[in-house]
Specification:
mainly alpha; 5 helices; 82% helix
Length: 127
């Protein structure tokens, strides 16, 4: 029971938070950046249900990584390490591939930091 309440519950709660944060940010705040940029590249922005499912898996994996980091680091360190792993490295790669609309970083950087902080806080408080 302790494993369930101190490990699984924090990871699942953080996964829910991350999923909601990702959905709101990408569907309501920065979607136009993505779709316009992809249109300029002659591509269609991928928004099929399978893409949402993959982001759900990404949210779970991100929450697991945050949980692991939280066992070794402070809240601030966990937030910064997880943000770097989850976002900075992703932006670096998709920027290198030419599919990152750089204008969205104005919104994405603070919102992703908030996402990583709240997920880290959820995990720290529940575990």
């Amino acid at each position: 029971m302790k494993f369930l309440t101190k490990t699984i519950l924090p990871i699942l709660a953080a996964t829910v938070w991350i999923s909601i944060s990702e959905f709101v940010r990408n569907e309501f705040i920065v979607k136009s950046f993505w779709t316009n940029h992809y249109n300029k590249l002659g591509l269609v922005f991928p928004s099929e249900p399978i893409n949402g499912a993959v982001w759900g898996i990404w949210s779970l994996l991100f929450a697991i990584a945050i949980f692991i980091l939280s066992t070794k680091f402070t809240l601030v360190q966990t937030t910064l390490f997880s943000w770097y792993m989850g976002f900075v490295l992703m932006w670096f790669v998709i920027g290198n591939m030419g599919v990152l609309p750089y204008g969205l970083l104005l919104y994405a950087i603070p919102l992703s930091l908030l996402e990583a902080f709240v997920a880290s806080l959820i995990i720290k408080k529940l575990s």
